[in-house]
Task: structure prediction
Amino acid sequence: MEPIGSRTWIIPDMYWPEHTSPGRYVSHEAVCVLNPSDADCEVVLDLYFEDRAPIRGLRALCPAARTRHIRMDALKSPDGSPVPRGVPYAAVVTCSVPAVVQYTRVDTTQSENALMTTLAYPASGRG
Result:
C-alpha cells in the first residue's frame, strides 16, 4: 500500500485568543496528526510571525498507527517560552514519516463559542 499523507504541512492562519473565556472551556488550538504508518512520527513545528523572529524546533511525537492532538498552549520553545497569545502566526509542520495534519481552533472568548478546523496544506515535492 502506498503511504498516506505527506512529510511537510503548512498552516498559514493560526491564532490563540488572548482573552480568557467566561465559561468552563478554555480557548485553545491544536495541530492534529494522524500517523497511519508502522513507525513513530517525530513532529517538528516551526512558527512564523508578522513582527518577530520565528520559533523553531517545537517537538512532539505521534506513535505508529495513532493520532496525536498537539495542544499549542502546552508547547514550549527550546528556550522554554510558550506560544504567544493574541498574535497571528503560521506553522510549517515536518513529520519524519508520511502523516496527515489538521488544525483546529476553539474560541471561547464569547458566550457563543466558535470552532474552526481545516486540513493543513501538504507541501508536495518538499517531503
